[in-house]
Amino acid sequence: MRTPADGDVGAARRRERVLFELAKRDKADVAETFRAITEAAAVALDVERTSIWRLLPDGNAIVCDDDFARTRGRHTVGVTLWKRDYPSYFSAIAENRVIAAHEARTDARTRELTKAYLEVHGITSMMDVPIWDKGRVYGILCHEHVGPARRWTNDDEAFAANLADVASLALETGERRTVERRWDAVVNTIQEAVFVLDGEGSIVHANPLGARIIERAGGGVTLAERMDLLEFRDEQGRVIPADRTGVRRSLRGEIVREINQLVFKRTGERRSFRITSAPMRDGDRIHSVVVVMADVTEEVAFDRLKREVLAALAHEFKTPVAIVKGYAQYMNQRRDASQADRPMLAAIERASNRLQSLIDDLVDVSGISLGRLVLHREPVELTELLRSVVRWAAPATRGRLVVNAPEAVAVSADRPRLEQAIRRLVDNAIRYSPLGGDVEIDVATSDEYVMISVRDRGIGIPADQQNRIFELFFRAHAGTPHDVGGLGIGLFMAREITIRHGGAMWFESEEGKGSTFYMRLPRTEAP
Amino acid sequence: MSGGGILVVDDDADLREFLRLMVTSMGFDVTCAENGQEALNVMEGHDPDLILLDMKMPVMDGWQFCRALEGRDARPPIVVLTAAPDPAARAAEVCAEGWLGKPFEYADLEAIVRRFAGLRRWNTPQTP
After folding, report:
1. How wide is the angle at C-alpha A332 spanned by C-alphas A329 and A338, nearest 5°?
2. C-alpha distances out from residue A99 to A69, A80, A110, A135, B55, Å
3. Any chain B CB within 8 A of the CB of A371?
4. Which residues contact A525 (CB under 8 A, 6 or more apart)?
5. Mutation test of the interface with chain A: which of B102, B104, B109, B113, choosing the one with the most A Cβ atoms within 10 A?
6. What's the rounded Cα separation, in Å, for the pair A6 and A12?
7. Taking Cα atoms as reference points, which of B100, B96, B42 lies closest to residue B70?
8. Are A22 and A10 in contact (CB under 8 A)?
9. How many other CB atoms are there within 10 angstroms of residue B17's CB atom?
10. A11-55 residue pLDDT tens
11. Contact B12 A330 (CB under 8 A)
12. Distance from the CA of B37 to the CA of which of A158, A459, A475, B115 falls in 20 to 30 A?
């Protein structure tokens, strides 16, 4: 027969053992861990019911995560108790301390529960311990005793607090695991290949798409192996030396974003990838590199095709337009052309001119986006150039076209291109001043710069469109009553030309009041 | 060998006929060829004062045609007709005397034809 002292020692050992077993187990599944805690607590503390309750964020209710009834050996979930029904009990919970109610049915903190809960289950004593999660109370671990009322000992309270700590740990692990699982799901399903490389450049992790690329290459986990199986080329197809690949540069600390062609040496296949690689640091040491690769082969091919077709199309348009325009001009100049025919011939000529300028725009845009804009710089007399722009624009102007410029201002520029850029600004100023209004062209000079501003008092640019105004094919007033047509390339062109000259372009605009566009050019070519 | 007049080389029949009409109306004799090879054949028995030359043509293009003329002591001046975005660069590539970007103005065509017709280019230095 055991002495009470032995029994206490036995119980203490049992409790230690329970805590040890709970601490050891995998806590990824929170609900499962909660079930294990309630079962173990019921046995180790020798109580009839043990339950875990979650306190809702507003503190107005507790919801049962798990309730274990020992004699029936059953778990239940989901019961809710409301603060409005048990205000004193909820105030006690809000104190975030252990509630050790030896006489639960008379204890001020718990007696509200008597009719609806304690009597129903025959409960006489109860002990609640707060469960903490990230510095806040998550809920309570609740122990309920049936039979003659029981005095909770300090050991009981300490043990219950330990169990509540296990529950906290389970919450933390569970959350981390949820985040990890969510992250894994993202990495495994995204349309990019993801690799994690160690500090030597060996692959330590690859998502399924990444694994497929490795497979296609025929293996290659270490950097050296990969360089044997793959050849890295830049967008133009030039071989990238082994020490200049994105991974190598990232191993040296650089964040690299570029499009590479990968040649799979085994099969000779060549595909384009947009590769982003970034170093991950631990202090000064780079311990790994993350590489994200998207297959952009079709995109790259289509983009090139698009630009080449655009250029070829524009080229093919020119000969037919030359014939139409040429005959119209020729016939209109003949002395025997009838008075009835002349306006028609003139209209054909104007239409051809419009077609021609559209074609020129397309050629220019495709040339610029293919990187083929070559400037032929020469000394240009700006005031004279502005006079030429004004002559060109005069027929379309509804208000006055005013130039305020010094007598002679010389800049080093590609004259036709510069004139084209300024024409764009003036043309826009006139187009978007439907009620007339003056257009002013001002020239200001300093030792280094010339600044040309074109100001109108037209409809202005809506504030929410302003940051896109220089985008290719963007038209701020498309589909509005102010839509005056066009392709949306004028400002793109004007700014590109300005930038290629080493200058800058910006604007100020207010809807309903007008816009001012500024073009700043260096006076001499940058060395 | 007959001499003078303008040789129009272009693979587009309508543009060729248009140029024939225009240049004839300026008072010049016009001979036409569809491509560089045909132009070389024409030049076997005829020595034009000026060649209006398209660049992109089947059989023999403008570049090949100009290379074929390089070996000669002299050749007529060449005005390149091109739809390329940078006609001046095209002209420079083949050492042509002038260029006209398509589509062109009647007035520009007349000016350039009158300016170059008859200005023979000598590939070897002339001895007085």
Report:
1. 160
2. 20, 19, 9, 19, 97
3. no
4. A377, A412, A502
5. B102
6. 10
7. B96
8. no
9. 14
10. 788 888 888 888 888 777 888 899 999 999 998 899 999 999 999
11. no
12. B115
Closest-CA residue of A relative to B105 is A326
Q: What are the pLDDT digits (tens) for A249-305?
A: 999 999 999 999 999 988 989 999 999 999 999 888 899 999 999 999 988 888 778
The reply to whether residue B102 touches residue A372, judged by beta carbons under 8 angstroms, is no
Q: Does A325 touch chain B (CB under 8 A)?
A: yes
Of A316, A330, A374, the CB nearest to B22: A330
Task: Identify the residue whose tokens are 């030896």.
Answer: A102
Please name the residue ranges forming H helices in A370-414: 382-393
Read off the amino acid at residue B88: A
Which tokens hold the place of A346? 């003139």
ipTM, two decimals, is 0.75
Chain CA centroid to CA B114, Å: 13
For tokens 């992790």, name the residue: A205
Confidence (pLDDT) at A37: 92
Record: contact A322-B25, CB cut-off 8 A? no
Set of chain A residues whose Cβ sits within 8 Å of the Cβ of B104:
322, 326
Tokens of A98: 């252990």
Question: How far apart are the C-alpha atoms of A261 and A268, rounded to whole Å?
Answer: 12
Q: What is the pLDDT of residue B121?
A: 54
Residue B48: is the preceding peptide bond cis (ω within 30°)? no
Residues of B in contact with A315 (CB under 8 A): 83-84
Using the Cβ of B18 and the Cβ atoms of chain A, whether some distance falls under 8 Å is answered with yes
Give CA–CA dist A283/B2, Å, rounded. 87
Q: Please indicate if any CB of chain A lies within 8 Å of the CB of B22.
A: yes
Cα gap A55→A86, rounded to integer Å: 14
* Min Cα separation B53/chain A (Å): 13
Global confidence as pTM: 0.51
